[in-house]
Design brief:
The protein folds into two domains: 1-35; 39-134. With 148 residues, the protein is of the alpha/beta class. The chain is 24% helix and 33% strand. Strands 7-1-4-3-2-6-5-8 form an eight-stranded mixed beta sheet, with no helix packed on it.
């Protein structure tokens, strides 16, 4: 009888450890099961999004306001990026989207600089003003070979 109680306690301890591990894995992987934030989609077209990945953060005034949902090749061989913006965040139709780097060799993210227009982008809207990623390797090679 005592062995059965001990085995049950060990089993519950192992099960709770496994559930805690699974929860932490999901949180660190930025996969959310429990919180379903409402978002809307906005699109932006860039000439170069080198290093930008799906799931990259979107910042406005230094605050995380969304994530990159998808990156595809659009018209005129431009990169079309779908941005998932949190509800409640208002983006004017003359905002500027830029691909930036965190630190010197850090991850890429999208920075949105607000515009001065009163008109706001709706779901499915397009940010027309964009700034592509700075390709550091290309810049260094131009400097080395004297083409700057």
């Amino acid at each position: 009888m005592k062995k059965i109680n001990f085995d049950a306690i060990v089993g519950l301890f192992v099960l709770s450890g496994f559930l805690a591990f699974a929860y932490m894995s999901l949180q660190l992987g930025e996969f959310s099961v429990f919180s379903m934030e409402k978002t809307y989609s906005v699109y932006a077209t860039f000439g170069n999004v080198s290093g930008l990945k799906r799931g990259a953060i979107i910042e406005m005034a230094g605050v995380n306001v969304g994530k990159v949902n998808s990156i595809s090749l659009g018209e005129n061989d431009q990169a079309k990026v779908q941005l998932q913006i949190n509800d409640g965040v208002k983006i004017s139709d003359d905002a500027i989207a830029s691909v930036k780097t965190q630190g010197i060799i850090g991850d890429k993210y999208i920075k949105i600089s607000p515009g001065g227009s009163e008109e706001l982008l709706a779901d499915g809207g397009v940010i027309t003003e964009t700034e592509s990623a700075l390709d550091l390797e290309e810049l260094v090679s131009k400097y080395i070979f004297g083409k700057v």
